[in-house]
Amino acid sequence: MEKNNKKHIKRREFLKVLGGMAAGSTLLYGCDFNNKFTENSEKAITYVPIGKMSYRTNHNTGDNVSLLGYGCMRWPMLSKTGRSEDEEIDQEAVNDLVDYAIMHGVNYFDTAPVYGKGLSEHSTGIALSRHPRNKYFVATKMSTFMPDPAMRTLEASKAMYHKSMKELQVDYIDYYLLHGIGLGGMKDFNERFIDNGVLDYLLKEREASRIRNLGWSFHGDVAVFDYMLQMNIKWDFVQIQLNYADWQHASGWNINAEYLYNQLLKNNIPVVIMEPLLGGRLAKLNDFLIAKLKQQQPQASVASWAFRYAGSPSNVLTVLSGMTCKEHLQDNIRTFSPLNPVSDDEKKVLNEITDMFLKYPTVPCTECMYCMPCKYGIDIPGVFAHYNRCVNEGNVPKDPRDPKYQEARRVFLVGYDRSVPKLRQASHCIGCNLCVPTCPQSIRIPVELQRIDKFVEDMKRGVASV
User: Fold this and answer.
1) Burial class for 368, CB neighbours closer than 10 Å (0-12, 13-18, 19+)
2) What is the DSSP letter of 330?
3) Distance between CA atoms of 29 and 50, rounded to whole angstroms?
4) 227-266: pLDDT as tens digits
5) Would you report the helix, strand and coil content of the chain in percent, each value rounded to 5?
6) What is the Cα–Cα distance from 74 to 140, expressed in whole angstroms?
7) pLDDT higher than threshold 60 for residue 26
8) Which of 258, 276, 253 is nearest to 69 (CA)?
9) Cα(148)–Cα(397) distance, rounded to whole angstroms?
10) Is 329 helix (H, G, I), strand (E, B) or coil?
11) Whether this model's pTM surpasses 0.85
12) Rounded distance, CA 58 to CA 35, Å?
């Protein structure tokens, strides 16, 4: 059966996503390290409701948008050779995830030309085009990550826009964004969208209804954010980073979400949320913090707290989640079907969690991959992810006199070699700084890599401490 070439999914095949289970119930799936789906026989059948999804109405178009949105940056990958450079998107798995999401009420899908090694739009288009066009809203972006001036012209931008439509197999785009506004300051914004006439062109496309909603995503210089709201342009939506840690304690180039959200609320602009888990960090809390949440709701996942927080503000249109594994999709569906808003008492608990969370010296990497590929082959997100994971799990040696030092030392060093090949470790960073301008979190990547490398070398000699 050639799934990829089918324009519409048949009803019988669509119903197969339920796997022959009773209506409203699904099996909980796990995800192996190659991102393939595997049924976990040790996990009981877990209820995943159908027909209970929470929706928010976009007052600009009347769209009833699912409060859970699908972020399509990290689709499951396959490699015939086992090498990461040969990976391609697992289309069968993507089809299955999209079918399952739509079946359970998710109707907002967010992608971009640069996602998934440049393959996300194409793969997302294949999966979505098998469903009726009125069953989903698709969002994509006019990407800004192109230092070559030839790629920043009106002609090149038009080509990107029309290619997105072709890849997504649509003749209109529901939600179109100027991508990463603020990363390069006002100068970059003017060069990318104003001086070359790109914004004027996109406004005309909205007038022609080929763009139904025009907005932008924000990271970086708050002066650009404020300027965008002062422009004589009706923005249909804006995408910001919002989570319970960033509400009042944003780091790097990010601005406190409390300010961003309230400014958009004041201007009556619907808000799309990205990074509700802070790049997964709010789903990987250390055991002590997890215990505090379990005292409140023993059955709730750690991630569900962050999603409930992000979805609670009334002006939020949808909360994006990059769900590579079906078990993550299922958990999020349960969280939003329907949403139980975070109470004032629960907010106090999350504020306490944030205060303690920020005391741990993790790197604020969200694993967005914008810094990749590294010219010198370093797995930058992998290095940071291993370090952060060990910190959050208490496996970073703090003092050689600590009785648990040797065990923590062993866990860190062995895990480092297993998760990041030696030729891709931090020791190979030469400090070229090419990665720094691409980081939405404004991480001084070479500085952090060198700090971690020194820590590793000290640990090998048995003298490391945080």
Assistant:
1) buried
2) H
3) 17
4) 999 999 999 999 999 999 999 999 877 899 999 999 999 9
5) 45, 15, 40
6) 14
7) no
8) 276
9) 44
10) helix
11) no
12) 34
Helix (H) or strand (E) holding 449: helix 445-460
CB 133 within 8 A of CB 170: yes
> Are 4 and 91 contacting, i.e. CB atoms less than 8 angstroms apart?
yes
8 A C-beta contact, residue 45 and residue 314: no
How long is the chain?
466
Residue 254: CB partners within 8 Å, gap ≥ 6? 219, 241, 246, 440, 441, 442
What pLDDT does 146 receive? Answer: 66
For 370-397, the DSSP string reads: TTPSPTT---HHHHHHHHHHHHHTT-S-
Strands (E), 210-311: 211-218, 237-241, 271-274
Could you check whether the bond before residue 373 is cis, i.e. omega within 30 degrees of 0?
yes
Q: Determine how many CB atoms are found less than 10 A away from the CB of residue 27.
A: 18
Q: What is the set of domains in the chain, with CATH numbers?
A: 3-16+51-357 (3.20.20.100), 380-460 (no CATH)
Rounded CA-CA distance 70/139 in Å is: 10
Average pLDDT over residues 11-31: 37
The string of DSSP letters for 243-266 reads -TTHHHH--TT---HHHHHHHHHH
Inter-residue contact 48 to 106 (CB < 8 Å): no
CA 452 from chain centre, in angstroms, equals 25
Q: What ranges make up the beta strands (E) of 50-122? A: 55-57, 64-66, 68-71, 77-78, 88-89, 108-110
Q: Which of 191, 115, 118 is nearest to 151 (CA)?
A: 191
pLDDT digits (tens, 9 = 90+) for 390-438: 877 767 666 677 777 888 888 889 999 999 999 999 999 999 999 999 9
* Measured distance CA(110)–CA(101) in Å, rounded: 13
Beta strand 29-31 pairing with 37-39: antiparallel
- β-sheet bridge partners, residue 204: none
Question: Can you tell me the distance from the alpha carbon of 29 to that of 31, in angstroms, rounded to the nearest whole number?
Answer: 7
* Max Cα distance, the chain (Å): 69
DSSP 442: -
In Å, what is the CA distance from 441 to each residue of 155, 182, 368? 30, 12, 10
What's the pLDDT tens digit per position in 162-210? 999 999 999 999 999 999 999 889 999 999 999 999 999 999 999 999 9
Instruction: To the nearest 10°, report the CA torsion of 56, 285, 257, 173.
Output: -40
* Separation of alpha carbons 174 and 128, rounded Å: 13
Report which secondary-structure segment, H or E, holds 166: helix 154-168
Beta-carbon-side half-sphere exposure of residue 44 (alpha carbons within 13 Å): 2
Q: Mean pLDDT, to the nearest integer, of 123-136?
A: 98
